[in-house]
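Notes taken during the Thursday session

The instructor put the following on the board and asked us to keep it in front of us for the whole hour. The protein is Calcium channel protein. We were told not to look anything up and to reason only from what is written here. First, the residues (292 in total):
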Amino acid sequence: MLKTWAVGLVLLWAGMAIGTAHAQTDEEGAQARALLTEAVDYYKENGDKALAVFSRQGPFVKDDLYVFAINTNGIMLASGGPSVMLIGRDIMNSIDDELKPAFERALSQPENGEILEADYPWGNWNTGGRKITKHVYFQRVGDTVLAVGYYQPRASSEQALQLLETAAEAVNSNARETFSAINALDQRFYKDDLYVFVVELDSQRFVAHGSNLRLVGRDFSLLADRMGKPFGQEALDKIATSEMVEFDYQWKHPITGDTEHKHAYARKVGNYLVAVGYYQPNNANVGQASAE
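Then, after some discussion, the predicted structure tokens were revealed:
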């Protein structure tokens, strides 16, 4: 458990591009940056007394946004979120050896008064072990690095197509192994709110589902959303005459829990329909899908 949180922290500092912060049009991004600025000012004024304030429910915890702090020796000093369990622990004792050099390099960056940013995969209280992309702002103050991040759970149509290509190639190479990996939440087959599902065409039943294992073994052709749309049969009818199809339906978002519009892409790979879809929020209040 500790290693899971620690790996997320390493990916925070070492993962993807780290550079000077740029203007965010996203409201939550602006809120995260503002909270970090407040935390930095408070820490400069109060020193280490601020750490206890950061670690409790109060002015530095705002919905899913919270402050956490780690020193340049790798010790977690404060957290208002799930990483509270790591406070006082040396992160270097909990991470894989191959990650330590990158972690050390990131912590050794000099203090320059600038807010930096990075993306990394992380879980929160509601993701059930599923990691989604978090964008973090961080700034070094003396020997302490303060940070605030926000989740970016909505993937794009382009990312959906990329994941579909990855999954289709894997199914073509080793179908059974791929089904097991999808059902086990292998990170190769999900990203943020994207996930893969696979239907055997002969039986018309799910053999893999990257979000809801209860659907494995169920008849895809019988699925209809709460609006009554028989999207399962629609997808099967389309794939019978084409190698690549698209279809739309209402479905539960795996992170927000809301029922939203979903646009899915599907490819025929041998005797299987392999599909990935992306979500778009509804304007209307739509109920839960009947299969969930």
